[in-house]
Structure formats: C-alpha cells, structure tokens
Amino acid sequence: MATKTATTASAKQSIAILGGTGDLGTGLAIRWSKAGHTIIIGSRTQEKAQAAVDHLAKISPKTPATPMLNADAAKAGDIVVLTVPFAHQVSTLEGVKSALAGKILIDVTVPLIPPKVGTVQLPPEGSAGKRAQLLLGDAVMVVTAFQNVAAHLLQQDVHIECDVLVAGNKKVARDRVIELVEEAGLRGWHAGPIENSAAAEALTSVLIQINRRHDISHSGLKIVGQEDH
Amino acid sequence: MATKTATTASAKQSIAILGGTGDLGTGLAIRWSKAGHTIIIGSRTQEKAQAAVDHLAKISPKTPATPMLNADAAKAGDIVVLTVPFAHQVSTLEGVKSALAGKILIDVTVPLIPPKVGTVQLPPEGSAGKRAQLLLGDAVMVVTAFQNVAAHLLQQDVHIECDVLVAGNKKVARDRVIELVEEAGLRGWHAGPIENSAAAEALTSVLIQINRRHDISHSGLKIVGQEDH
C-alpha cells in the first residue's frame, strides 16, 4: 500500500562530480553515496577518473563510483557538480556545456588565486558562480554551494559545524541543493540569486585569514538569528 | 603603586560617528559611551547633528554626545566612524579627508542599492571598504566592520549573537577595532586586508535573503571552528 511504503525526502539520483579527484569531490562522493545516491566521478582523462575512483575505494571501501570522462559524466548525471580549481572552471564548463541543458549544476568553485589565497580576488563577473551562469546560459540552473566547508572534514565521519550558503536564480534548484546539503549532513540556507555567490566565495579567503590569525582550526560560519527584545 | 592601578583593556578615546543619525550610529554611540568613550555625533548640518544628539538623549538618557559638523567631528575624534548610506559614502569622505590623516576610519558602509537590497551589488573597486581606502590614501587606516549586525539590536541592552568581520590593511588598526567591537559587546575577527571587506559587505544581502526565506529573525553569522578527528 502506498501509505506504508517508506518514502525518502528526496529521490535517489545519479550525481556526476566533475573534478572528483580532489578532497572536496571525494568528500561529497562519500557522503552522498552513503545517502543512497549513485556517484559518477568525472575527470579530464579516463585514467585520472579511474585513479580517483581507486583512491575513493581505498579511503571509503563502501563508496562505489563509476569513472568517466567529464563530458560523459555530465551526460550521465541527473545532477552535475563542479569541483575543479578556479583556473579550470571555464575550460571544464565549455567542454560539458551541451550536456548540462535542463540540469542543475552545483558549482563549488572558489576564486582563490595563488599565492594570495587569503585575499579576496573575485572575477570581473562578480563571482565564479555568476561567471558559470553567464557561460552556460539560462538553460542550466547554476547553484553554488560548499565553498566554505573544509574538504578534509567532509571525508571524515564527523558532524560539520559549518553551514552552507546556497545561491542560484531558481528557487526550485536551490531547494533541491539544500536537500543535498542536508543529505551530506550540513545545514543549507537560501542565499539568494547567483550574484550572491560572491559572499560565500569571498568568505573563503576570510576564513583562511581567521585560521592564520586566531587560535581556531577549520573555521567556518554558522547562521544565527535572534528576536527583538 | 602601578601594579595596583586598575588598567583598562583600551584607552578611553573620543569617537566621532559621522552619520550618527541612523540606527547603527546611534547603537554604536550607546554601547561605546557605556564603555567609557566620549562620543561626537557628526552630520551634514549642525541642526541634524543636534537632532541626532537629542534623539540619542531620548532613547538613551545616559549617553552624552556632542553634535558637530562632519568635518569638525572628523578633526575632533581620535577614531572616526562612517555610518552613512552607500550613496553618500564618497561625498562624505571627500569632505573630511584631510582631517583623517594618521587616524583609523571605521567604515560601516554596505553597498546596498535599492530596490534590490537582497542582491549583492559590489562597486567596481571590489568593495565599499576598498573604495574608501583608495579615496583616502595610505595615510588613513581604513578598517571595515559591523556590516552584518542588526542596527536595532545594537540599540538594545541585549547580547548580540552576530560576530563582526574586521578587514583592513594594518594589523595594528584591526587590533584596535577588534577591541572596540568587544567593548560594544560583540566578537570581532581578523578578516584580512581591505579587499576582504567584500565578504562582509556581500553577506548583508545574503542575510536579507535568509530573513525573507527562512523562519529566522535578524540573521547573522557566527564564526565556528573544529578540529580534525
């Protein structure tokens, strides 16, 4: 009977993580796989994708993942996640653009430009998220998230204090990403349109400064509220 | 004996609040006056400055303040605070520039551009703080702070949950402002160089979105940290 069938908060989907060879992509793969989603790891070569899957199997034997070229991964994923360094954001997106139409792209890109990673250096478009949305056009629902989360913590089986600011032009897409944030064990917040990705992207350099200058590790942000008295 | 003399964490100074006619300026005046500092309220006309002081006396009878024209206030203050709307930031600073040499300017400006105050719209310089520093030159130590704090809460005798990100190029100036943040009852953090003011300025629009879209009032941010496990 329908009423007795266990229903999940969100459908289990196939999630393609482009650049899933880094710490952040690996951490998200582990957490979303645990939540029941199917994971595809995309990379620029089949060898690198395979190496990432092998690495993932070593640090998390219970996380199955399929290695693919980025373009194939973008085609295969119901939802696509971009976790490449800032310098590769545009070239990676150009290579997968046609496969993203009608989909949500979760862009985790932070515009850190070495050596001054502790200094905010937003791109001329205002943010990496805005740059992705302009490049991909309105057919793709770009949503940015996870820029402030310590990648190492994502890979560990711990509660993460840091909240996630979720920016994007379509509320329905932000809602879906907030569900995915929660399935990864974090709290997500509607941060507004894609322009507002600037806040989370800039915050990453601020958190780097705080880690340097205060007696605190893996600093993050928590959204708090309070009533008038 | 010197060792028995009570010493305060910071010297009591004269603080000139330019645009101290608004909620934020009033709130800071109340809290810093309580901490022992002398308050000057600056405005564009002597009448407006007097009206602000009268208003302050009404909501906080124990907060003495001296009304002055902005230029005189900037001269008289050991530390100068700018709390005018974004549209008046440049013209106000141009009028007081010569009085600020060698001083700390605490710039609270948030680049909110109506009607889309929930959308991040940072200026071409990258942030209002950077714009102030470029305009004033290196002789003035611009430090930005308080952009994310609900002005109404500052005026009330309550603990404020929201932390304060303190950006500026000189560490000694940020240290001083962090002391003043703490004297106002809040927690301040070294956010890095003036470019990093972009994070706090952009966050204000994000917090406006969160107030709209989540069941939370006066949302703010708290910096949290955690160790590896």
Mean pLDDT of chain A: 93
Number of strands of chain A: 9
Major sheet attributes of chain A: 8 strands, mixed
Task: Name the strands of the widest sheet of chain A in spatial order.
Answer: 3-2-1-4-5-6-7-8
Task: Specify the oligomeric state.
Answer: homodimer
The unreliable regions of chain A are 1-8
The ordered H/E elements of chain A are EHEHEHEHEHEHEHEHE
Strand content of chain A: 15-25%
Would you write up a description of this structure?
The structure is a homodimer of 229-residue chains. Chain A is α/β, with parallel strands linked by helices. The first copy, chain A, contains eight helices and nine strands. Chain A has an eight-stranded mixed beta sheet, sandwiched between helices. In chain A, strand 2, helix 2 and strand 3 form a beta-alpha-beta unit. In chain A, helix 4 (89-96) packs parallel to helix 5. The longest helix of chain A has 17 residues, at 197-213. Chain A is globular and about 55 Å long. Chains A and B meet through strand 8, helix 8 and strand 9 of A and strand 8, helix 8 and strand 9 of B. Strand 9 (220-224) of chain A pairs antiparallel with strand 9 of chain B.
What attributes characterize this protein structure?
homodimer; 229 residues; alpha/beta; eight-stranded mixed beta sheet; 37% helix; 19% strand
SSE order and pairing:
Two copies of one chain form a homodimer.
Chain A: E1 14-18, H1 23-34, E2 38-43, H2 46-59, E3 65-69, H3 70-76, E4 79-82, H4 89-96, E5 104-107, H5 128-136, E6 141-144, H6 151-155, E7 164-168, H7 171-183, E8 188-192, H8 197-213, E9 220-224
Parallel strand pairs in A: 1-2, 1-4, 2-3, 4-5, 5-6, 7-8
Antiparallel strand pairs in A: 6-7
Helix pairs in contact in A: 4-5
